[in-house]
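Q: Make up one entry.
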Amino acid sequence: MKVFRLVAIGVALALAGARHAGGQRLPVQLDLPVVPALEPALPVLVAEAAGYFRGEGVEVTRILLTGGVSIRNLLIGGRATFGVLGTEHIPLARTAGSPLKAVASVYDRLHVTLIVRSGLRDQVKSVEHLRGRVVGVTAPGSFTWSVAVTFLKRAGLEPERDVRLLAVGTDAHVLYAALQTGRVDALAFSEPVLSRAVVDGIGFVLVDVFDPVVARRWMGSDLLMVGVLATTETAAHTQPEVVGALVRGISKGLAYIRSHGADETIQLVVGNPKTSQLLQGVSRELAVRMIHRIRRGYGTGCLSPAGYRAELRRMIDTGVLPQPVSFEEATDARWAGVCPR
């Protein structure tokens, strides 16, 4: 009995030490910050609600919905080890001397577009017609900001001169209200605001980025690696088991989305208190409609060189990124693998 107790205490101490040492081992507990856009967030929500993370030895204590800029700062400052955010934050961090790595892709198509308030339907028929208008983004330096800048510059407008870019924040209800009240004339965002604004009649989509032809016209490709699970180079080196567990959990979440109906996916997510927050106030019918709109962008989790390079070109061409960062520098594909293209 005494030997058994000593062994049990030793195991407990070993687990505790592993959790607090540089090289964490499974099982492990962690908070996971995620951008509050349904497209990149959904695989995480599904993985948590279906128990895939727990099955891999990871207990996600909290899913923290916050902006990509905040998540990048959390990773750089060591206050978070992992996060799901826009791909652009990886090269931006690396050019600033902070070596972040993308370890899995969560969404492979552009999902942020320009939603214009309905009262301007007769006046704003193209991006060029936004001259002199107020365009809402979540925050300066965010993915929504960079996509708005891309649309404006490729339409021949200068963001700092021809429009007013207004930071509105990341709360879906605040973003919706900004469009509804006329605080902004247009909003750069995605789900869960986009479909709700269209169905409620307060906004219309100016650029249908879910149409592959339209996406290629504006972005040069309809395949864009726009959302990723990211970590630091240090964590990738010292905590490979944890990275692998998270990647496997997200890959299973992606597989679930691809193989199950939209209604079943929504039922799973909203039925779990930890994962339902992003869709609070959204009817089941509208949530299903959102899934149908976005599901084409879900792959296997593999990291796409072509998708990354298309996203890199967009950032370089519009001045969002000062210098190129190679696919090999920005990613670590040991766990998710490299896509065929």
Notes: Residues 44 and 59 are 13 Å apart (CA to CA). DSSP finds 16 helices and ten strands in the chain.
